[in-house]
Amino acid sequence: MFDYESWYIIAAPLYLLFLVLSIWKKRPFKDILLHSLIFVYIVAVIGIVIFPLPFQSRLIEDSKITNNLVNNFIPLASIIDIIVHNSISVSIRQIGGNILLLLPLGFFTPLVWVKKSRFAQVIKIGFLSALGIESAQFFISFLLGFTYKVTDVDDVILNTLGCIIGYFL
After folding, report:
1. Coil/strand/helix, residue 2
2. Which of the ends of the chain has fewer CB neighbours closer than 10 A, N or C?
3. Which residues lie closer than 8 Å to 31 by C-beta, 6 or more apart?
4. What is the pLDDT of residues 38-48, one digit of tens each?
5. Exposed (0-12), middle (13-18) or buried (19+): which is 103, by Cβ within 10 Å?
6. What is the pLDDT of residues 77-119, one digit of tens each?
7. What is the residue-wise DSSP string for 11-55?
8. SS3 for 150?
9. Is 76 in contact with 154 (CB distance < 8 Å)?
10. Which letter does DSSP use for residue 152 in this model?
11. Phi/psi zone of residue 26: left (φ > 0), alpha (ψ -120 to 50 degrees), beta?
């Protein structure tokens, strides 16, 4: 299984390359720090939404048998299901986690791209990022032949809401 640790081992040399290039180009420390934070954030998001990624044939076959995940394309269906069928703490963790996932994106976007700092632009970036995440999960599931991560329209809604909250922070 290709897991979180493997992803971070791949990301570390990319970060070192970024640092070397930034220092070589004599970028200001505050820019290097901001871009470092964004890099770490992006690596963490990819680690959360894509991995662990099964690639061994036996693991895939076992997952096809034992995995009961179902995609959701009906807006608000899974949010309502989470609230109705789970405790308050589980509901807050699941819904809050989706909101928190793209909250930093809403915060970082105006700091990095001045031209993209308008509210409508940030919403668009947040929505397209959330849609990209869910599309990647759907596409990988399609390639694997089973749903390894749920594709959920409510995740797009909650992730976009998180991006909006981050913008106002």
Report:
1. strand
2. C
3. 22
4. 999 998 899 89
5. buried
6. 999 999 999 999 999 999 999 999 999 999 999 988 877 779 9
7. HHHHHHHHHHHHHHTT--HHHHHHHHHHHHHHHHHHHHHH-SB--
8. coil
9. yes
10. B
11. left
* Closest by Cα among 150, 145, 151, 135 to 57: 145
Phi, psi dihedral angles at 35 (to 5 degrees): -70, -30
CA distance linking residue 121 with residue 83, whole number of Å: 31
Cβ neighbours of residue 127 under 8 Å, at least 6 residues apart? Answer: 156, 160, 163
Q: Is the pTM of this model over 0.85?
A: yes
Residue reference for tokens 């970036």: 125
Question: Using one digit for the tens of pLDDT, what is the confidence trace for 44-87?
Answer: 899 899 887 776 666 667 666 677 788 999 999 999 999 999 99
User: In 3D, which of 101, 107, 95 has the Cα closest to residue 166?
Assistant: 107
Say which residue the tokens 């998001």 belong to: 45
Burial per residue of 8-38, b for 16 or more beta-carbon CB atoms within 10 angstroms, e otherwise: eeebeeeeeeeeeebeeeeeeeeeeeebeeb
Amino acid at 41: Y
Tokens of 108: 């970082």
* Radius of gyration of the CA atoms of the chain, in A: 18
